[in-house]
Each structure stands twice: as C-alpha cells, then as structure tokens.
Specification:
The chain is about 15% helix and about 20% strand. It has one domain. Strands 1-2-10-5 form a 4-stranded antiparallel beta sheet. It has a 4-stranded antiparallel beta sheet with strand order 6-9-8-7, with helices on both faces. The chain is an alpha+beta fold. The N and C termini lie close together (about 10 Å).
Length: about 280
C-alpha cells in the first residue's frame, strides 16, 4: 500500500507518474459510462505532501465542459472541433483571482500572491477552470475536488519530478507567466521536443497524449494559468502537442483550438495498491 507521503517522497516517480488508477470512477453512472466510451482513464499526474492528483488520460469532448452557475457553457464547434473550447461565454461570470478558492491559489502561487485582485480576462477564464463547484462532475471515489486542467506550476512540478530537462515558471508579469529552461525565464513559450531539450519527455503520453494525430482538430490542452503575453491580457498557457511546446493561446477566440484534461485531487488519507500489471487501485 502507498500513502500520499509514500508517493510524494518516492525516488521512483518516473514509474509512478503516468500509471493508471484502474478503479477511479466519477459519481454519476451515466457520465462514467460516457467517459468510458471516450476511452478516458485516470493517470497519476503529481503528488505533494498532502494529496495525489490524477489527470484524464486524454481530452474530454467539449460538450462535457460544465456550465457556470448561471447556465453558460464554453464556446465550441461540435461538428468541426468537438474537443476544443474557448471561454468567451463564461469568463464574464467570474471576477478573476478573487474567485479562486484560497486552497487552490497555491497552484498559481507566484501569480496569485502578487496579483490577488487581478480581473484580467485570462484570470477570469482561469477562475472558470478552477471552479470546483462546477467541475465536481469529475469527482468520484476518493476524490476531494476536481478542476478543468492542470496549472502551469503543477504541470512543471510533475515534469521536473520525472527527471526531464528542468523547466521554470518562476517569473511573471501582470498578465501572467513566462516559461523556459532558464531560472526566472523571460520567454513566452518553450519547445520541449528532443530537438530543443537534451532530456525530453515529448514521447510520454502523460503530458502529450495526442502528439501525432491532432485529435479532431484539437492541437493540445489548456493549462489553468494566465500567460505573460505582452500585448493582451486574454491569453492562457497551454500545451500545443503538434509543435511540442508550452505556449500562450488566446482564451476568447477560436484560434485557441485546445481542449481540457481534468485534474482530480484525491483525499489526503487515500491508500493506493500497486497491482502486478503496473496499475494502481484506490483502497481507501
């Protein structure tokens, strides 16, 4: 059996992260059936001292993105771009940083600490992605909460735990995060294929589940973090699988063409059983 601290303190995270948790299911049976039809499984994405975090193994169909409390859904084109969403219809429902639950601000820690009252369009879009009251449709056995996608800080923490070429996101502007291979980067994007990094995880489906087929014109997935794009404040960070990059994408226009991969936070007292086939099972 593995506790949260066993996973968080493990020296073997490369063999834990990415493993399937074979018995995690969302609470709604009909929705669970729909996720199974999409081929969605749940993989261990990250662990800190308090919790283990699962990620959807692939993008979720856009029509399953939750509605806001007032009934608005993200914009999507079911026929041509069935996995891609953007936030024109939903961001106005949120005030920005102030609407992010205090316990979740740690995942955009650097930004939220400095700009705790930011009302930019991108932070209002982030607030939608981190609204646990609506993303609870993805909670199930052993879950504490769910959000729409990992943040940049969580994504990079997971990546760095795997031992790949180290990435940094410890520099921000008022608009959002920079990312790069240098400490305190000032670059807006970072290619992470083997052409650019000496130790690249581009072939790891935990981070890039669709790099070869551009899943129904969906070129990657959103990260729940604002981007430091200098001209406008409506850009989020995202993973572009087709180019192998962490980069900025417009949150309120169709050129985003990114989907979402929900994150599930498991309860702090969870126990995982390591199965002979390499999967894990939730015991408690």
């Amino acid at each position: 059996m593995l506790t949260v601290k066993d996973v968080a303190n493990s020296n073997d995270k490369a063999n834990i992260y990415g493993s399937i948790v074979d018995n995690y299911e969302v609470n709604d049976n009909k929705f669970q059936s729909n996720l199974e039809k999409m081929g969605i499984e749940w993989k261990i994405f990250y662990a800190d001292d308090n919790n283990i975090y699962l990620i959807a193994s692939n993008y979720i169909l856009a029509e399953n993105a939750p509605k806001t409390i007032n009934g608005f859904s993200p914009v999507y084109d079911k026929e041509n771009y069935p996995y891609s969403i953007y936030f024109t219809n939903v961001y106005s429902e949120y005030a920005g940083t102030a609407d992010i639950t205090s316990g979740l601000k740690k995942w955009n820690d650097l930004y939220c600490n400095k700009y705790d009252l930011n009302t930019n369009t991108n932070m209002r879009s982030v607030a939608y992605l981190m609204d646990t009251d609506i993303w609870n449709i993805f909670t199930g056995n052993g879950a504490e909460y769910a959000i729409g996608s990992p943040t940049l800080e969580m994504w990079i923490d997971s990546w760095n735990d795997m031992g790949y070429t180290k990435l940094y996101c410890n520099h921000i502007s008022q608009n959002g995060y920079y990312v790069g291979v240098a400490d305190s980067p000032n670059t807006l994007y970072q290619y992470i294929t083997s052409e650019y990094l000496s130790n690249s995880g581009y072939d790891n489906s935990l981070y890039f589940p669709n790099q070869t087929n551009n899943n129904n014109n969906c070129y990657g997935y959103w990260l729940s973090s604002p981007a430091a794009y200098t001209e406008l404040s409506n850009y989020l960070m995202g993973i572009n699988e087709s180019t192998g990059a962490i980069m900025y994408r417009c949150a309120t226009y169709t050129d985003g063409l990114l989907g979402f991969r929900p994150i599930v936070c498991l309860s702090s007292d969870i126990l995982l059983k390591n199965n002979e086939n390499g999967t894990f099972s939730i015991i408690k």
